[in-house]
């Protein structure tokens, strides 16, 4: 399929912009492919106006149509075959196996949201029936369900060019809730983005969705994204990326004349606590698992285990030796793009310049020509970690830092000093767990997801997943960006009081034609 | 019971402040009762530190204990008897019957949240069980439920001295979710606030809650509230009041180093659309209902019907005559305090100064000595309404304004021009509804609650209620401040991956000891 390097606005190409950029293969530092353009203010406006029209000018699409649309996107993305994988490899430096798995995950997410929409109970329908005989004031008939909110702007993430990009979880959940999406592609993979966007547009046409249901905008500078967040027709925004970028967009969203929610997932250090029993019984296994998790995908995961906390002693020393050896033997890896590789280098420099933090080991130096980062293992003590906020900041890339503690009180002090986290992990025996209840209580307050004897990378896509956590992990700890609950970001309750049956949405009619689970007079039922 | 005019911090009185204020009886413009003090920064800090300690330093209170606490507050508030009603009448100018009903509502809300907590399914427990045999990557065991977020700051509302005040719906829902509350009393009813706070503290003691679970702070200036929102230990804020006040607090909450959610319910004009069939068949009944709703409680409701929209013709003219007569015959009423009465006067002046808006009728002028407002009926045409943003702003008090439209297209244009609303109402016949689907679709996007052939005042407290809506009605349309769903503002999902059974909360254990409704491997069940 041809890449035209146009903005794709409501199904039509547009090339108004004058500022251009192209993809670069990070493994060779070579630019390639067509010149893309930053979307202009006029193009942004047309995309959002088309989204508004799709949302407002016709009755909402029935859930079955939305489900077919999502299933069809899944099929079209699958049909892209090798062209998608080839382009994504070239633009991101990620491996074929990883990208093939990522495509599988993306297709699975689309089908999961199709099923969520088709099954329908996600709308949390609640019905309180009338009681005209109630004394003082008759009781009205009150019915409530979740409905779509309107045009959603989604930002592509650099580190998941398929699963958190054009047809990724944010787009799928926003569409599943009934919203149009205006997608801002990440400038590190514009070709992959266009390819998938064209698949989505074919799906929209095949399922007779309004053309404004999806638009793709490209842009290398910050201005396109800022303009999208500022635009008066935008109702919500989803973003996955850095704390600095997410916070800048959040500030714009909150300071609009009409503030809108901005759901930013901004990563974290994902602390791993090693309790004594686990270190004694499985220290070497944990060390191997840690190095695998910290270097997987060249460490480019929001859930990368960036901080490891353990209690001093011979078992921790042995653990450190094993981790140091494994990291020394690791290979440098190509990062997503030059800027992210430079940032990783600066973060490592910032950390090692802190008195009390040292590099325990690192892999062979990478090649700048291949945009390579070298896996790095650092260590420090609790006093240094507690005294230096820098030490607690995310270092995005293949590194992890051990924090040596004097005992349970210092483990707890370290936990207490942490900012909000996507995840926190504990390695322990059942006895360890029983003996460290105060630590567990602190971690419950700090993170969105707690893991026991595992590693935080590899986020399962399911109903119970929570990929989100207290700030600065995300801007809103109420919501998740992975799993079927991600749909709740893009819907709001709408209540109908005393409306005749035939004018209610099917989800709220007495007969429950969609056979969804509802709360009727405070009883859960699906009849 | 004695009113000591102290801050009540974790069960102890404190009187550090130097700036003082007292209550004023608006019906006589007479100050009365003890001198209260603005809480100091030190007192604010102590209240939040006590809340933090209550939240962090012990395992969470079991749901049954929280439920008993809420039930006990309900009993203690009931036991306040006439003293509560007498004080509230004196501080607010509201009638005994109204305040007695408001107490009943408050007690009902507390019991509803006790039942929500006791029943337990509100935590939205989700369990996805493991599959160690899954190919590529074994499937982990993932379990998720809603948990408390920490110290919540609640602001009292002037217009509901009981139901949206110390032990009102915001406090009850925050406590029900397991959070401590620091309550900022509204300066218009400090005595009523202290009386209820003492009832809550007796309940906390009786049910062995941590003393930091509830604190009451007083303050007449803005600084106490701003300081509470800025405080680093505050995790969320609930506010009911003006757009200006709510937005100022929202801006502070969003611009903190660590932003927190601020749930502000800021009122709206609650448009009422009169469709032709309804006007023809029930014009006079609707007119009576409208005047009753617009003057109830001297118009001091967030859901006051401030704008009425109809199609020109003899039936609308007749409707206007009836409304004008009823308003002319209405009595002036004492508003809550002098400032709110002056604001009402200024709003009416602002409206009548717009060319094209006229006063159709008003009740006899009120007495300034009695802080009285005069019910007022204004009218304009769609052109004026569309051209003047002023005309679409809330006028808090006993008034309503008719907007004359030329036909369905103008009805829709008026609807489209509206800001976000708590409610929108349609009076019509089934035929009207069928003929005005585009109007209904616009209103669905504008409001949190749609009413058919009713009036928006009188917000039913139930599971299906949505008291909230798109900005500026509230700062977050995802949530409600009335009804059992109000609890969701104060809880966030927490996910446990691969934890042993005995270390999971009861809500997530295999045996489902609390017998709550859960989603287990995507099936809803309560076994």
Profile the largest sheet of chain A: 7 strands, mixed
What proportion of the residues of chain A form beta strands (DSSP E)?
A: 15-25%
How many distinct helices of chain A?
A: 15
The 3D shape of chain A can be described as globular
Summarize model confidence as the mean pLDDT of chain A.
Answer: 97
Largest interface: A-B, 77 and 77 residues
The helix content of chain A, as a percent range, equals: 25-40%
Strand order of the largest sheet of chain A: 15-17-18-13-12-19-20
Structural class of chain A: alpha/beta
* Count of beta strands of chain A: 23
Notes on the protein architecture:
2 copies of one chain form a homodimer. Chain A has 527 residues and is α/β, with parallel strands linked by helices. Chain A starts with 6 loop residues before the first strand and ends with a strand. The longest helix of chain A is centred in the first third of the chain and has 24 residues. In chain A, strand 12, helix 9 and strand 13 form a beta-alpha-beta unit. Chain A has a 7-stranded mixed sheet with strand order 15-17-18-13-12-19-20, sandwiched between helices. The mean pLDDT of chain A is 97. Chain A has 15 helices and 23 strands. Chain A is globular. Helices cover 37% and strands 20% of the residues of chain A. Chains A and B meet through strand 5, strand 6, helix 8, helix 15 and strand 20 of A and strand 5, strand 6, helix 8, helix 15 and strand 20 of B. Strand 21 of chain A pairs parallel with strand 20 of chain B, so a sheet runs across the interface.
């Amino acid at each position: 399929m041809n890449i035209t390097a146009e903005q794709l606005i409501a199904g039509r190409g547009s090339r108004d912009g004058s500022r251009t950029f192209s993809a670069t293969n990070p493994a060779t530092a070579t630019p390639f492919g067509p010149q893309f353009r930053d979307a202009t203010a006029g193009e942004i406006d047309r995309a959002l106006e088309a989204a508004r029209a799709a949302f407002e000018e016709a009755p909402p699409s029935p859930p079955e149509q939305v489900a077919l649309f999502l299933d069809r996107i899944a099929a079209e993305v699958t049909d892209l075959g090798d062209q998608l994988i080839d382009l994504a490899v070239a633009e991101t430096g990620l491996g074929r196996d990883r990208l093939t798995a990522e495509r599988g995950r993306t297709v699975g997410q689309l089908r999961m949201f199709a099923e969520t929409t088709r099954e329908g109970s996600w709308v949390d329908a609640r019905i309180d029936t009338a009681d005209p005989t109630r004394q003082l004031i008759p009781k009205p008939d009150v019915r409530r369900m979740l409905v779509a909110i309107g045009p959603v702007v989604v930002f592509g993430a650099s580190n998941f060019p398929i699963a958190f990009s054009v047809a990724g979880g944010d787009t799928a959940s926003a569409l599943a809730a009934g919203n149009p999406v205006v997608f801002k592609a990440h400038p590190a993979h514009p070709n992959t983005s266009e390819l998938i966007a064209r698949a989505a547009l074919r799906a929209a046409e095949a399922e007779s969705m309004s053309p404004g249901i999806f638009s793709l905008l490209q842009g290398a500078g910050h201005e396109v994204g800022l303009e999208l967040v500022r635009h008066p027709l935008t109702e919500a925004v989803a973003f996955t990326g850095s704390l600095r970028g997410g916070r800048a967009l959040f500030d714009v969203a909150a300071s609009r004349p009409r503030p809108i929610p901005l759901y930013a997932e901004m990563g974290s250090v994902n602390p791993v606590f090693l309790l004594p029993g686990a270190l004694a019984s499985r220290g070497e296994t944990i060390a191997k698992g840690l190095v695998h998790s910290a270097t997987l995908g060249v460490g480019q995961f929001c859930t990368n285990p960036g901080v490891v906390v353990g209690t001093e002693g011979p078992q921790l020393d042995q653990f450190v030796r094993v981790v140091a050896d494994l990291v020394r033997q690791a290979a440098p890896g190509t990062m997503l793009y030059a800027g992210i590789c430079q940032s990783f280098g600066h973060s490592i420099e910032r950390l090692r310049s802190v008195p009390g933090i040292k590099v325990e080991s690192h892999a062979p130096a990478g090649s700048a020509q291949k945009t390579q980062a070298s896996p790095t293992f650092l260590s420090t003590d609790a006093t240094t970690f507690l005294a230096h906020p820098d030490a607690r900041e995310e270092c995005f890339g293949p590194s992890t830092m051990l924090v040596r503690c004097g005992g349970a009180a210092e483990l707890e002090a370290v936990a207490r000093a942490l900012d909000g986290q996507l995840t926190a992990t504990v390695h322990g025996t059942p006895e360890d767990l029983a003996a460290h209840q105060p630590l567990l209580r602190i971690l419950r307050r700090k993170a969105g997801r707690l893991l026991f004897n595992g590693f935080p990378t590899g986020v399962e896509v399911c109903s119970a997943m929570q990929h989100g956590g207290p700030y600065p992990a995300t801007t809103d700890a109420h919501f998740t960006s992975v799993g079927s609950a991600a749909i709740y970001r893009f819907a709001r309750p709408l209540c109908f009081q005393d409306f005749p049956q035939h004018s209610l949405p099917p989800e709220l009619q007495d007969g429950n034609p969609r056979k969804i689970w509802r709360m009727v007079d405070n009883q859960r039922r699906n009849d």
